[in-house]
Specification:
With about 300 residues, the chain is α/β, with parallel strands linked by helices. About 45% of the residues lie in helices and about 15% in strands. The protein has two domains: about 200 residues, Rossmann fold (3-Layer(aba) Sandwich), CATH 3.40.50; about 90 residues, Rossmann fold. It is globular.
């Protein structure tokens, strides 16, 4: 049975900004001179990859555990950024975390998780099959199944990233964020619409995994039979029904980017800023680069959300 649509409470976002541990909040945001010159627009990078979990998802995981301090055992259908963040935060809150991931999971991330003592089970190729196996296992062992995109605490924790943009001298014309399961885009859109109403929020997905972008545009759950992208964190085939409607309201637009554009964006971040960023983490910049010719004179914020390991 589907749950109720997610609704971000901005008062709780303010509270989260005060309570989430320091490594994950008040992150760097600055104008990239080289990338601004390259694209012909003002590009402000929001760096969410320089923290203990290597991604923006640390904000989400910490806020979840702050709100659920008595959770004992959690099962997650992710061996990527979401799973890494949940495992890290779980250790800090003395919660047992077990992760399920697809066979195509980033092996460097899997090995890092296992080295830290986290149980990781690589089960199937299709992300939906992984979710079903995690759901079955959680029912057998009595653990709580957590899926990104189905708990409002994740969107609230991630909205703290957008809240920090208020410290910029002027509101940006647009903010580009990766879509993935939708929590980051929902939190960013909810905050910006309420507190920075002139700023457009654009959710970005790979061309090879367009389901979430299509769902937002069509305002209904849209599925695809397969996904084909190197951006594993954004490889959504079946969007959660709980997030599609609020996400469609929160976002001003969506954009699809090619594998080539994501790879070029990752290379630009390495060349101009010395950042080792995954294609997932560079997707927002890829979309900004494609849009740049029609945005001359604009200032955009690009969320850099995930780094490579190994």
């Amino acid at each position: 049975m589907a749950g109720l649509p997610l609704k971000v409470d901005l008062d709780r976002v303010v509270e989260a900004a005060e309570m989430i541990p320091r490594p994950f909040i008040r992150t760097a945001q600055y104008r990239s001179e080289g990338i601004s010159r390259l694209l012909g627009i003002e590009v402000i990078l929001k760096i969410e990859s320089a923290n203990p979990v290597g991604s923006v998802m640390g904000r989400a995981a910490e806020w979840f555990f702050i709100n659920h301090p008595h959770t004992n055992r959690i099962i997650c259908a992710s061996a990527g950024d979401f799973g890494i963040a949940m495992a890290y935060a779980g250790r800090g809150h003395s919660v047992d975390i077990e992760l399920f991931g697809p066979l195509s999971s980033d092996l460097a991330k899997v090995e890092a998780l296992r080295h830290a003592g986290t149980t990781v089970r690589l089960d199937a190729e299709d992300p939906e099959d992984v979710k079903e196996e995690a759901r079955r296992y959680a029912g057998v062992v009595g653990g709580a199944l957590l899926l990104d995109g189905e708990h409002v605490e994740f969107a609230e924790g991630l909205a703290t990233m957008a809240a920090e943009l208020q410290h910029l001298r002027e509101p940006p014309d647009a903010v580009f964020v990766p879509l993935g399961e939708g929590s980051l885009a929902l939190g960013t859109g909810a905050w910006c619409h309420a507190r920075m109403p002139r700023t457009r929020v654009v959710g970005v997905a790979p061309e090879g995994a367009p389901a979430m972008a299509r769902a937002v545009r069509e305002r209904r759950v849209v599925t695809t039979p397969t996904v084909a992208t190197v951006a594993r964190e954004l490889a959504v085939r079946v969007p959660s029904e709980m997030i599609v409607a609020p996400l469609a309201y929160a976002l001003d637009d969506t954009a699809l980017v090619s594998e080539r554009h994501m790879q070029q964006a990752a290379a630009a971040l390495a060349a101009h800023e010395g950042l080792r960023v995954s294609c997932d983490g560079a997707a927002a910049l890829a979309a900004a680069a494609v849009a740049a010719p029609s945005m001359r004179g604009a200032t955009v914020v690009v969320a850099v959300t995930s780094r490579t390991i190994g």
